[in-house]
Amino acid sequence: MRSRRSCLAVPGSNPRFLEKAQTLDVDEAFLDLEDSVAPSAKEEARRNVVAALREGDWTGKTMAVRVNDLSTQWTYRDVIDIVEGAGDALDCVMLPKVQDASHVMWIDTLLTQIERANGLPVGRIGVEAQIEDARGLVNVDAIAGASPRLETLVFGPADFMASINMRTLVVGEQPPGYTEGDAYHYILMRILMAARTHDLQAIDGPYLQIKDLDGFRRVAGRAAALGFDGKWVLHPTQVEAANEVFSPTQADYDQAELILDAYEYHTTVERRGAVMLGDEMIDEASRKMAIVVAAKGRAAGLRRTTAFTPPS
Ligand code: GLV
Ligand code: MG
């Protein structure tokens, strides 16, 4: 799986941002043709995005393009122009406002045809599906299983809040007057369950108060604690925070690697299933939890600072 702690939104109509994005330390950049691009700039944005993918230096980043949603007249031409123009420089297409499995099947079929017609390897380009309204959430299990190309489910809080008439204008913050808990808990968990059922990554969407870094950390930390893999970033100031919040701490990473080594030693050399590591009892379930943390730590480039020594 690709690391997606920070997923940078880059408006396709802005050549300066397309240039700047290449210098940022993000796991993924997605070049946008949808809501950050004005209707009159859609065609120019397609050309900018193809040129940026072809000529830019995106080393180390997963590259995606967000096309327009299926209720518009732009989607098919977005996909064709981008994939024919720069398909070999593209990892994923992001489809916004996915409402049911047929939307994913549509883009899967179109991608297959374009890949075949252009001699590209069939099935290499992945799909990221944004869940942005009530219908998408109700159908999220079927959406998550709709194509082997799917890599992520992405929560789109701004469109989602509008779709359910949530009474707030501050994206990602609790609606004023709701003091009972976290108004996003159900939505995030619902998306996470569907993602995990189908081995997809779960990505949290944007936090629009870009000056409020504490707010960003709080909202990102909430999604990370549940198990989300990453979050959108809209501004350079959010990048470092996202990479940090969605990486395990050094202590957790070290502990996870220790658990894996200790468990391996005790189950193979000592042939026991439940063993002690320091004061903690570890078993097969501990190993599974440790695998998750260790994998995220390795993907984030962490190095071990402790080593396992077998009991003498
Ligand atoms: C992102 O697309 C959102 O609607 O929040
Ligand atoms: Mg949206």
The percentage helix is 40-55%
CATH topology term of the largest domain? TIM Barrel
Identify the strand order in the major beta sheet.
1-2-3-4-5-6-7-8
Shape: globular
Q: List cofactors, ions and other ligands.
A: glyoxylic acid, magnesium ion
Mean pLDDT: 95
Number of extended strands: 10
**Poorly predicted parts:** none
- Level-2 CATH architecture of the largest domain: Alpha-Beta Barrel
Which strand-content bin applies to the residues?
Answer: 5-15%
So what's the CATH class of the largest domain? Alpha Beta
Radius of gyration over alpha carbons? 21 Å
Number of domains: 2
Structure, described:
The protein is of the alpha/beta class and 312 residues long. The chain folds into two domains: 6-245, Phosphoenolpyruvate-binding domains (TIM Barrel), CATH 3.20.20; 250-299, no CATH class. It has twelve helices and ten strands. Strands 1-2-3-4-5-6-7-8 form an eight-stranded parallel β-barrel, surrounded by six helices. Strands 9-10 form a two-stranded antiparallel ribbon. α2 runs parallel beside α3 (75-86). The two termini are 38 Å apart. The structure holds glyoxylic acid and magnesium ion. Magnesium ion (MG) binds next to α7. Glyoxylic acid (GLV) binds next to α7.
